[in-house]
């Protein structure tokens, strides 16, 4: 006779395999959008880049096509999408940490800056700069960290928290690049001074790009044509965006 239990089990196994294959296609589609820096969602979910890309992939993938035809439990909610993105982000960070730590010479410098985003929240950006075993210079971005305060003590705590979280020893830090603000470069109470209290071999460097920006700003003050042009461009961008 027919083993009904075996048939049911086989059908369930095939269903699970199909669901896993669909999930892999969803993850790869989401990863593509994130790597390319494209928006995942829009004002209407049905017209989002993510949904459109999944529909395109489903044309050549029966597992995904079948999954998207389900009435519910499609794993397309904002929470699931955000969780998948967060998992991928953590995997990238783990890889970046290995790049910083797993070298013959584990020394590095830190590039740190703070600025307000479009919602007027202060964000601290942290990058690591190092030379790999092939003598190539690398800079890796570790993320933005929201803060309510931009005092030197707060910035020091944020940096130390990042180093502790990723098990990166500050004793291998040899440089810190910042802008010229007092909370960064203050000789007694600036961020660089507080870091040097922990690791005296750290050298503070004024960011060259920021220095150039200051020079350009001063130069524009005596060139009314350029000043007016940039002011008009700024107003136009504000109006359009």
Automatic annotation (TrEMBL):
Domain DUF4371, by residue range, is 20-190
Listed Pfam families: DUF4371
Q: Which domain of life is it from?
A: Eukaryota
PANTHER family in the cross-refs? DUF4371 DOMAIN-CONTAINING PROTEIN, PTHR45749
What is the protein named?
DUF4371 domain-containing protein
